[in-house]
Amino acid sequence: MTVKWLYYWQPNVGGTMSSQTLFDAFKRIEALHGSKTFRWQITASQFRPNQRDSPVPPVDCARELWGVSFSEVPDKYFFALRQDHMVVEADATMQAIMEKLQVYRNRLTILFEGFQYELGDFHIKAGRAVLAHTENLRGIVLEVDYKPLSSVEQSRRVVEDFMKVLNKGVVTGQFIPLDPNFPEYSLPDLYSWQHTSLQYVTLMAHVLSQQRT
Amino acid sequence: MECVVQGILEAKHVDALEVLLQGLCGGLRETIKVHEICLKTGPNLGAVASEVHLCCSLSQPEPVWSVRHVGGAMRGAGAEQLPALVRPVLEAGISNNSLRFMHALGYKLDYEMLRTGFSFQMHKTVPIAVTITIAVTAIHRLPKTHSVDEAQPVTPNLHMVQLTAPASPDNYSDVVGAISGLAEYLAPLVHLSKPGVPAGVVPTASTAAAALISRGGITKVL
Questions:
Q1: Which domain holds residue A16?
Q2: What does the pLDDT average to over B117-141?
């Protein structure tokens, strides 16, 4: 699996973010002769412990649980515990098991959705982040991967150089990389969907923290 | 959901049952070595108290983990009369950090065991296609937490025989029929009944076992 690097749109101070930002990103990719291939959707959810019979929350459990599903791998579901630095990969049936157990309840869900482009050896997913069941825009994202490489370290520089080209001449803001710190989560250099799910969880946490501030 | 019956078999008749199953099912014998961990929620966690089973299959070169949730058995007068238990079951493969994950979610170890043995699969069409798994296993207790290598048999002279088959609300009565039919073929060696309904060992199993072993198998197929 090739390494995917996630970037999010950071407007300049005093600037705003709108759907136009995403259309501009589409145009820039198409100007570089990127060809649109398919629609994609990623669902990221935050869960909280479901406490019973007591106003005091249970102590021996994670305060937050994160879950991610990808339209490209519908038979899998991924969980992340940021406090425990852990990513878990499971069959999609695990969602049904968690619903039966009723130990954690969904607090909110963000949908990442957009189009994928092919541009030479690069795949680019450009899309928006919206709160599920609303159209409230919460972010603009670019996921970039360089097809020939599946090593995290080797691909980092190539994608950084590509993003410099894509950000060139843009004055209203820029796409910023995430630093999810894979080794801290014991994720190896060989890239997998677990790495991708951690990036979307990190981005969702960032979006929610920005919303609070 | 799944349909299930189970029974006990004296260890000395396991070879005879294997011969019988080989004849009924063909040659696809699979080894079972599963570390099963039952986890329960801690206090105040979850809308209701819950338990879940983590199963680690150790029969392959690399351990394979799965999560299994078994719901309450089907109830009612109709269910009582069925010769097999029908219950909802959900199972999901999961990565090898699942035990740490479940502990982090607030689940505590309730008990654990090691199951070793073998299984066969039988495919029947009665009138729908049904795949029945016949598992013959010995249960081992672990003297220390997760000490799989020090496992000791709980009942050295007895093995558990379990027949299970996946089902749906639309077809479970056909599946129960298929399981019940197979249970009749195994009846000379093992009494199979719903879990929790003890049927004991078959007193004449020795005679049936001797006949099977001396013939080196059976030729009759379902």
A1: 4-50+62-212
A2: 93
Sign of CA dihedral A34, A36, A38, A44: positive
Q: Which top CATH class is B2-215?
A: mainly beta
CATH code at A141?
A: 2.40.320
**Residue A126 domain flag:** yes
CB atoms B105 and A103 under 8 Å: yes
Cβ proximity of A160 and A143 under 8 Å: no
Residue A17 domain-assigned (yes or no) = yes
**Is the backbone peptide bond immediately before B127 cis, with ω within 30 degrees of 0?**
yes
Q: What is the total count of domains within chain A?
A: 1
A81 contacts in chain B (CB < 8 Å)? 101, 104
Would A56 be classed as within a structural domain?
Answer: no
ipTM score assigned to the predicted complex: 0.90
**Closest residue of A to B68, CA-based?**
A97
In degrees to the nearest 10, what's the CA dihedral of A185, A189, A194, A196? Answer: 110
* Selected residue of A69, A93, A104 to mutate for chain B interface (largest B Cβ count, 10 A): A93
Between residues B118 and A53, the one the model is more confident about:
B118
The answer as to whether A152 is a domain residue is: yes
Please identify among residues 99-118 of chain B the ones whose CB lies closer than 8 Å to any CB of chain A.
100-101, 104-108
How distant is the Cα of B192 from the closest Cα of chain A, in angstroms? 29
| Size of chain B, expressed as the number of residues it contains | 222
Nearest CA in chain A to B89: A97
**Residue A59: pLDDT over 90:** no
Rounded Cα distance, A21 and A14, in Å: 15
Listed residue (B49, B37, B208) closest to A103, CA to CA:
B49
